[in-house]
Amino acid sequence: MTEIVPAKNGSPTISKDGIYLLSRYDPDKEIVRALSGVGRGPAFVVFGSALGMIPHELTEKGVLPEQIIVVEPEQMLMENSAPALFAMGISCYDRVSLDILTIWMESTLTAGYRPEILALPAFIKAYPSEYAVFEAGFRQSLALAVENIKVEAYFSKVWFVNYFRNLASITRGENRFMLDERSNNRPDAVPLIIAAGPSLNDRLAEISRYRDRYVIISVLSAARTLLSGGITPDIVVLSDAGPANILHFRGLPRQVPVFASVYANSALIAGIPNPVVFYDLFPQMESPSYRTDSPSVTIDAGMLAMRLYTGKPVFCGFDLSYSERYGSHSGNNALSELRREKNITRLANFDTYTQSFRNRKDIIHEDGKTTNRHLHMLRCLAEEMFSGCGFIGGGVCFRTLKAVSLETAGASGDKPDVGDLYRTIPQKMREKVSQILNSLIKELDHGDSRLKEIVFIREKIAGIDSGPVSRYYIKKCEGILQSLSGVLNG
Predict the structure, then answer these.
(1) 141 to each of 30, 42, 113, 121, 464, how far by Cα in Å?
(2) What is the CB neighbour count within 10 angstroms for residue 347?
(3) pTM of the full structure
(4) Max CA-CA distance within the chain?
(5) Residues 6+ positions from 223 with CB-CB distance below 8 Å
(6) Which helix (H) or strand (E) holds 199?
(7) Residue 347: what pLDDT?
(8) Which helix (H) or strand (E) holds 55?
(9) Is 2 helix (H, G, I), strand (E, B) or coil?
(10) How far apart are alpha carbons 280 and 241 in whole angstroms?
């Protein structure tokens, strides 16, 4: 039993099962002494706030409230500490999700602060299982945050360029659409999310047999594998920013709509004849984030499926592991075809290429599967986001998703028309593009703008002046504005 009782000096202290977690004489003095060596450099994830005394002492030392996040080991302590912490501007949880903690870590790391755990030994000893879960979550979130920042530092400018080029395309192109979310009535269908994991090769005949029971939503890199098995997807999802996606598009029938992020590769989108549905157009025009929603296009496809249909998604080919036979990806993948054609010799045949994943330095052997640290983090993220959804075995086992069969998981009856999910982009949204581009130019020209904090991450971390690069993108926006003036005025 945990109680809040008065100490000898009258301050509140904590007793758990008859053992004091804080001093029974002067808990305030104990906290000051325990934090005497703490500086302002790190950001702190506090396990057990000691009735708010630890965060209060940290702020006294000059640590900003946004550099502190508190996780209480039990609900009673949460209820007693949360009001005062919220008043200080400090977030407090009894259990913090991987997603929330990762986002917080990304912001603190980008701001130059190193996340650290701060926990009194008495709290660790009193709550060993809770602390073990907390520490594991901290390490997972930190690893994921670091990976995300690496990706953002590399792709931040690519996302930005794709954003304003894709916006410009909605004023020029006739084949641009947006999701039709004016009605809350989602179609009753089960989405089958097709990822490009190697197990997909062995599922093609089965998918073909039961395809009428699903709306097939394929990531772009898996589409050609499906086509090789005579299966045409209902929807293809594109959120990747990289130019290599152009290679995956070859052979996709023109009638298949491509549901794309406004941050997806603009060169590919500009050159395809298929209907392009920007599934995040409205929110990203209203309040742009200048980044994709997740580190995986399969996760993006799953999130989109839950927006579009009432049935819980089923994932197929979402292996997040390597295959001894196929390597890292499904067959008929454009990149693997190029490697087969160009890199194969008597000394390095295709079999040795498929085993090249063994040369990685971050390999993890888990539950009989060979994976890596990044794929492991994606599994944890998928388990949090798609709990209760289904997956077809072949890769890693998801602890919160259900292993299902294609024969039983689908729905019988007529499938809804995919064309009912999207509509023509209204003229007022097309006209708003020039306003957004002008706003971007002003933000780029403003030294303290939020845009510079998000787009020029590499320059910020390295302490480099982003002015010259900013002026380069101002010219790009001005050039697009000039080319759009005739279209908008006409």
Answers:
(1) 30, 16, 15, 22, 28
(2) 6
(3) 0.73
(4) 81
(5) 194, 233, 236, 248, 249, 252, 256
(6) none
(7) 46
(8) helix 53-60
(9) strand
(10) 15
